[in-house]
Write a structure and sequence with these properties.
By secondary structure, the chain is mainly alpha-helical. It has helices at residues 8-31, 38-49, 67-79, 84-87, 89-109, 113-124, 127-132, 139-154. Helix 1 (8-31) runs parallel beside helix 6 and helix 5 packs parallel to helix 8.
Length: 155
């Protein structure tokens, strides 16, 4: 198994297919447009009812989220009448932005094409990562900024 070689063309095609599949899954989950569940609804109420600086204060309903996540969600939500899709748009963008960053980080961490492909399959097809791409919670932005920090280490 150690000596398994992958041609450059097969490697590029595999990565392209994996990334497209990851993009499709995230957009598919987002497009289902399911209703907000309890925790999301509580966070949405805080975002909708407070002024921007009020998001710096402790949130109602035992909610906690980073200020910048709340502020960006508020700006996007207010621009599109606080629809569920609008409130979930920033997490989707963060999850989509994490895909090329993860690929970059994986190429720096692994020197074997098969390892890079495997890591990207696990990342792009992870149910939890795809699910949180369409949820009004800060998990996708946490993931994106963690990958930004990791990627900056390798620059």
């Amino acid at each position: 198994m150690k000596n398994l070689k992958i041609s450059h063309c097969a490697y590029i095609f595999s990565i392209f297919l994996i990334i497209l599949t990851g993009l499709f899954l995230r957009i598919y989950f987002y497009s289902i447009e399911r209703p907000l569940w309890n925790d999301e609804a509580a966070l949405a109420l805080n975002i909708m009812e407070r002024k921007s600086l009020g998001l710096l204060l402790p949130l109602n309903f035992n909610q906690v989220a980073p200020f910048m996540f709340l502020l960006i969600s508020k700006l996007i939500g207010a621009s599109f009448n606080y629809s569920e899709l609008a409130l979930r748009f920033f997490p989707l963008l963060c999850s989509i932005g994490a895909i090329p960053l993860f690929f970059y980080v994986s190429t720096k961490l692994f020197n074997n094409k098969l390892q890079i492909i495997t890591a990207n399959v696990m990342f792009n097809l992870s149910f939890n990562i795809c699910y949180f791409a369409q949820e009004l919670k800060q998990y996708s932005s946490d993931l994106l900024f963690t990958l930004i920090i990791l990627a900056s280490y390798f620059l």
